[in-house]
Design goal:
The complex is a heterodimer of chains A (about 325) and B (about 250).
Chain A lengths: L6 E10 L2 E11 L4 E5 L6 H8 L7 E6 L2 E2 L4 H7 E4 L11 H11 L4 H14 L15 H13 L5 E5 L7 H14 L4 E6 L2 H7 L2 E6 L2 E6 L1 H9 L3 E7 L2 H10 L3 E8 L5 E7 L6 H11 L2 E7 L4 H15 L1
Parallel strand pairs in A: 3-8, 3-9, 6-7, 7-8
Antiparallel strand pairs in A: 1-2, 1-4, 4-5, 9-10, 11-13, 11-14, 12-13
Helix pairs in contact in A: 3-4, 4-5, 8-11
Chain B lengths: L1 H16 L1 H27 L6 H7 L1 H15 L1 H9 L1 H6 L5 H19 L1 H12 L9 H28 L3 H18 L12 H8 L2 H9 L5 H24 L4
Helix pairs in contact in B: 1-2, 1-7, 2-4, 3-12, 4-9, 4-10, 5-9, 7-9, 7-13, 9-10, 9-12, 9-13
The chains are: A alpha/beta (about 325), B mainly alpha (about 250).
Amino acid sequence: MDEKPIIETANLTKRFSGRVAIDNISFTVAQGEVVGLLGPNGAGKTTTMRILSCYLMANSGTAKVAGFDVFSQPYEVKRRIGYMPENNPLHKDMRVREYLKFRARLKGLGWRESRKRVDVMVEQCGLSEVSNRIIGHLSKGYQQRVGLADALVHNPELIILDEPTIGLDPNQIRSVRHLIKTLAGKHTILLSTHNLTEVEMTCNRILILAEGKILAADTPDNLQKKISGERQIIAEIMAPISHLREFFESNNLVEDFDVVPIDGGYIRCLITSKDSADLRQAIYEKSVASGWKLRELTRKRYTLEDIFFKITRNEKEEE
Amino acid sequence: MRTCLILLRRELGSYFVSWTGYVVISVVLFLIGLGFVGLIEALNVEPITNSIVELFFESYNFWLILVLVVPLITMRIFAREKSSGTIETLITTPITDVQIVAAKFLGALAFYAIMWLPLLLCMLIVQYYMPADIETDYGKILSAYLGIILIGILFIAAGCFASVLSKNQISAAIIGLAFAIFLFTLGYLSYSAPFQNGIISEVFAYMNLIEHIKDFARGVIDTRPVVFYISTAALFLNLTLRTVQNHQWR
């Protein structure tokens, strides 16, 4: 992972007739990472991807893909990326194999090589049953796979996928996600989505974008930690409630707590610790020493929905 | 260069995977046939000194094809890619904007050249039934075909520009038609009253497409119209290229 970064952007800004689409964005993506661009509609995800794929020029800032400048060396950049635009535009009047072969040749593969790669892609993307059918007659799920196969056909270093699962039914989403997962490791992937579960499942790093700015960039786990900060712990203990109160009050790492009796004589405790200290071990040891029954001891986990909501809301409040 | 050829093949092929190509060729075939039937009937009435090739170019059928059909050929080249979004996948492949414009222009031109092949066949049929003592002048036929291609270069370049201006194929066709009519009527200005004589009249006379094609049909290849077609086509193609490049800044 300590190789040169595959994407490097610095202070990238793009304005559309007065409106700022992306505002001073800087980020890097290392080789082999699967990075998710997450944000509401109009956050600048598509614009960022279009700049990286040489479709748009930025107003200021620099962007490099595999060490090549996006603005001054577009040819070198384009050879190294596989880009699937939003809504997956395809030549619907062509047949699957014919289209993939055309695209492979257009991307500079030789005749023999393109044939070989198309065979591999048809196999890998599960298109063998439909390889001789007209693209326009296929279901959306299959069309999406054709789009993915097109992005992959020249074996690019970087794959850029703009909302790869939009408009698909749950089964199709699952199969496309599965396909993306099989690609991870072999390729670097940058994908955008506004579906939080999707990034959680497929990405090992998330960039949260809103209104053209990067609000957060980290792994899904670290984002969890940042927001919830390991501070809240849930424990269900069978013990006299007064003893529990006493214990939490006496522990100087506890900032706040709440005890609620629930079914079966258990008491549900929600403990907030100071300075992100992990109280789980202390609680466990105390329970064992005092002979309390402990049936749950866990950090409170936020879903990405919560994280996203929190981050975007904080941003609003600061303004 | 190789990528250019691959794209060109796809462009030319796309006329034949959809209805467009077949419809256009049928219409052209019908108009050419109609023109020849009219000519042969006219020849039956009285002998004419001009060759059959010249006579055909004077008929309205030829100009109808040129002015009406060329916008139909060119309307799809950029407008369709823009409306379906495939322009994005095209531009993000390792291919330069110059190659894209060149391939699309040449693809349309190749289709145009194929579209006119039946005319050659018609001419050969007519020549075949001519009295044996009249020598067939293949040079004239070839020079006429060359003239058709040259004039096509101009009209298709204008059509390319019309297509890149619009996202909608119909409006691309209408803009293209406006360009074609403009180019066609330009030469007529030299006949109109305020420009009867002097340098202005001469300038417009240089742009008189009808006179040009008559020359070609007589087997005269004058460099002046050739320069006019090529340079005007280059202007339109350059404008097309600029518009394609401009997308990056929107």
